[in-house]
Write a structure and sequence with these properties.
Length: 130
């Protein structure tokens, strides 16, 4: 499988912005370790009813990369009529907004977990009961 990926994703031999290996190597690793990302990459976005939603899912999966790297990967490996219709500033805006929304969701989840643990601790200490 890696040979097929190496043939398919070989445009970026330089390291990613914050990485130590090539952008392509990091991208291929993510695809092999996350089957959902592989499926999204193989989706024919031009046949989709909601291409923006697919791109948002891809962006979330690529969230460890910097916005510029995400734009590069999508532009070179997963462009579509929708993606090509966006000028670079709109693509960057989509990436940044998607990442911000995802970060908010993750923060809310962490806060919920913290609140639940605090309540469990209080109940265990007999401070409050439900």
């Amino acid at each position: 499988m890696e040979d097929l990926l190496e043939k398919r994703f070989n445009k970026h031999p330089d390291p990613s912005i914050n990485g130590h290996t090539s952008l392509d190597d990091e991208f291929m690793y993510m695809i092999t370790s996350d089957p959902d990302l592989g499926c999204l990459i193989d989706t024919d976005i031009d046949q989709s009813i909601n291409p923006c939603s697919i791109y948002m899912q891809i962006i979330i999966k690529l969230g460890i990369f910097e916005c510029e790297d995400i734009d590069t990967l999508i532009t070179d490996y997963k462009n579509s009529q929708f993606w090509n219709s966006l000028d670079p500033s709109k693509r960057r805006e989509l990436i940044e907004k998607t990442m911000a929304i995802q970060e908010e969701k993750e923060q809310e989840a962490l806060e919920t977990i913290g609140t639940e643990k605090m309540q469990e601790k209080r109940i265990g200490m007999g401070i409050c009961s439900t």
